[in-house]
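Private note to self, pasted from the team thread so I don't lose it. Backbone tokens:
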């Protein structure tokens, strides 16, 4: 089966793209918090990407990816009409969504795409969803309009102050928690330092905090152990026990170390890919 790219939108040139993919069997079952593992070609690396949205009737899923290495760079060369070799999913436990009042969803960088699907699920069940979106500058902000269509509040923070609060999402979150004592849950999706910082901010307020761990994954079904992480002193596999966990219990230091364990091989693979691209262009 081929997974055709029906739509490609470049969100940030050379950096972040959105693909709508024909994947009816995934779309039928996908829930907020789920992810897929895909390959661009038969010999390609398996990479996990969050389902940022889905349309069961149209049989499509949406993914948003940041170009960080060989596979994401290769995927960014794909155009509408081309196909991915395989898309396996939905994987992972879906987000626990129940009617509970006010939920603050915090997203940083490409994590906003995943956060958007979770926020949508909370809004659909009737929770008051406050979205906090962060980026280095206003040109890198993602999904603000989409979030605005179902969140009564969308708060923005940029590192350079070009839009919204001048500073980090954690500043905005802290202020919101000080003003509003009735927040039932904070959900954070983004870079590891951001999720760790969010968990530190919410701890003194005693607010339930859910983070989505982007551990290295290979099979995505709990067999290989690649995604091992420690939560509350216990070993968990992010692919089948998560990817969402209690942010107050995650060993973020270990996660950071494990994410960097293949850096040399990743660098080599990217250099080889760039060399092949240059040769193909006749340089
Ligand atoms: C559950 C989950 C959901 C994710 N959702 C998204 C998403 O929606 N959008 C997005 O841009 N990124 C997402 N990621 C991260 C994404 O999988 C990596 O950026 C991608 O695998 C990098 O592959 P590469 O070949 O381009 O880069 P590489 O050069 O191979 O790696 C660059 C960095 O990406 C990470 N990485 C590499 N291989 C894997 C792997 N097999 N599994 C996980 N991380 C890896 C490592 O930190 C590594 O240092 C998600 C990760 C997980 C675990
Ligand atoms: S990715 Fe293999 S056990 Fe989780």
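Design output:
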């Amino acid at each position: 089966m081929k997974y055709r790219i029906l739509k490609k939108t470049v969100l940030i040139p050379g950096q972040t793209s959105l693909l709508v993919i024909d994947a009816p069997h995934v779309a039928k079952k996908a829930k907020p918090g789920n992810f897929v593992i895909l390959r661009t070609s038969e010999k390609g690396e398996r990479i996990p990407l969050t389902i940022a949205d889905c349309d069961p009737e149209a049989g499509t899923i949406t993914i948003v990816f940041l170009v960080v290495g060989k596979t994401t760079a290769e995927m960014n060369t794909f155009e509408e009409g081309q196909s991915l070799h395989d898309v396996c999913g939905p994987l992972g436990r879906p987000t626990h969504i129940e009617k509970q009042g006010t939920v603050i969803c915090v997203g940083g960088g490409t994590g906003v795409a995943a956060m958007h699907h979770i926020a949508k699920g909370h809004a659909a069940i009737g929770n008051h969803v406050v979205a906090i979106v962060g980026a280095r500058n206003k040109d890198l902000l993602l999904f603000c309009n989409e979030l605005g269509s179902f969140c009564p509040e969308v708060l923005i923070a940029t590192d350079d102050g070009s839009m919204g609060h001048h500073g980090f999402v954690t500043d905005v979150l802290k202020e919101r928690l000080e003003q509003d004592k009735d927040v039932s849950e904070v959900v954070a999706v983004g870079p590891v330092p951001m999720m760790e910082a969010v968990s530190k901010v919410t701890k003194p307020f005693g607010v339930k905090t859910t983070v989505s761990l982007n551990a290295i994954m290979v099979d995505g079904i709990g067999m290989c152990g690649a995604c091992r992480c420690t939560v509350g002193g216990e070993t968990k596999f992010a692919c089948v026990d998560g990817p969402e966990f209690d942010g107050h219990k995650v060993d973020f230091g270990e996660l950071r170390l494990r994410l960097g364990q293949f850096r040399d091989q990743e660098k080599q693979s990217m250099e080889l890919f760039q060399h092949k691209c240059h040769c193909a262009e006749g340089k």
